[in-house]
Amino acid sequence: MKYHVVTLGCAKNIADSEGIGTLLRAAGYEPGTPDEADVLIVNTCGFLQAARQESIETLNALGERKKPGQLLVAAGCLSERYGAALADEVPALDGIIGTQQWTRIADFIQQLREREEEARWRAYAMPPDARNHVADSVSRRAEGHSAYLKIADGCSAPCAFCTIPSFKGPQRSKRPGTVIREAQELVAQGVQEIVLVAQDLTAYGRDWGETDGLPTLLEHLMQEVEGDVWFRLMYAYPGHATERLIEVMARHERICNYLDMPLQHGDPNVLKRMRRPHKLERIYRFFEQMRDAMPDVSLRTTFIVGYPGETEEEFQNLLDFMSAVQFDKVGVFTFSPEPGTPAAELPDQIPEEVKQERWERAMAHQQPIALARQEAQLGRTLEVVVDGYDAENGLTLARSYREAPEVDGYVLVRGQYDPGERLTVRITGAMPYDLEGRVVKRKPRRTPPPHPAAISLDAIGVRES
């Protein structure tokens, strides 16, 4: 029996897809192509209208070429949000399983196979009461040299534009021992980089009363996980970021001097309407403290333009904020009114042509800032990890601590090197998104430390619940 998973959406979905693959392999399945797979699974995204449309189109494309006996399953956020109603959009769908149920994927597929053929006129959705709290018990099997490790699911933030809490529920953090065990499993398989992700990374542990849990978790990871693996932090919420987080990041070399903190806007009035942290003085101070502690830190953020009521003056305040902070990496999105959110009901919705024009201006505004931040790297010697090879141009695609997988650019190196290999390069060229480098040293491939038989939870003061 074979399976094939298509992953859409964010890094958190990638982590879940790897968990799905691990569970299916444990149940006797093997990965395969869409043509040879017995089960086709699309891990969908349901965050924005464009993402929903992509998910539905992907499901229908697979459904149209589905062979007799193949099962088509929708997993992920779109499934969690719409449940059985998703079958109205995808006639060939056989099964629907949500974000809080995927740890039962093997049993679910077996249920689909045991159903009577005549009962398959409509997709079967796993009942809501079959939800799990958080995927604490799933071992990880690495899919490459870089891996996402989801430390929490759900979200308790009140953002007015976001649908995620409505279908994923409040924040549910994995216990520290589970996170450590998963990290150890990944490192034992040769993973070179672990990217910690959550919908609200800096809220880790708040659901059980830990007000500053992320720095504590990082300390435990540094103590318990051997090897020279990089740890990278993405999706930090500004309201929960602390000076202690900065101190822990600066003290441990294995934690990349990199932080992704989606801020969504740079005008306090827009941020208030978004129900986001809006005290810009605190945000300025946090970034100043971070750059004092780590002068070479790489800062990434995302912004939404065209939010309801956004005036030209408020948009200009966003551009001024970008100039003041000088972010290394910026993603810009146009506002999407999501049904059921407070933002969709706000007055003064912005016309699409104005949203697009502001998106273009924001991206153009960031270009010289990004280039200047890149040019500051000229002459530096950086360690990079190889992601792949561009045969057409004869270039190795690598990343330093400054570039996250999937969303940032590359350090381009002439010649071919193996994925997962570590190189020391001197930066010789800079572009707004990519750097160019010359190899000065190849790092010997390391032998992964053995995965320990057990973790001393007493040593970190935590018991699994």
TrEMBL record:
Top-level taxon of the source organism: Bacteria
Gene Ontology molecular function: 4 iron, 4 sulfur cluster binding; aspartic acid methylthiotransferase activity; metal ion binding; protein methylthiotransferase activity
Domain MTTase N-terminal as annotated: residue spans: 1-114
Protein residues bound to [4Fe-4S] cluster 1: 10, 45, 77
TRAM domain ranges (all copies): 375-441
Localization per Swiss-Prot or TrEMBL: Cytoplasm
A Gene Ontology cellular-component term: cytosol
Coiled coil: none
Cofactor: record remark: Binds 2 [4Fe-4S] clusters. One cluster is coordinated with 3 cysteines and an exchangeable S-adenosyl-L-methionine.
Catalytic activity entry: L-aspartate(89)-[ribosomal protein uS12]-hydrogen + (sulfur carrier)-SH + AH2 + 2 S-adenosyl-L-methionine = 3-methylsulfanyl-L-aspartate(89)-[ribosomal protein uS12]-hydrogen + (sulfur carrier)-H + 5'-deoxyadenosine + L-methionine + A + S-adenosyl-L-homocysteine + 2 H(+)
Name of the protein in question: Ribosomal protein uS12 methylthiotransferase RimO
Gene for this chain: rimO
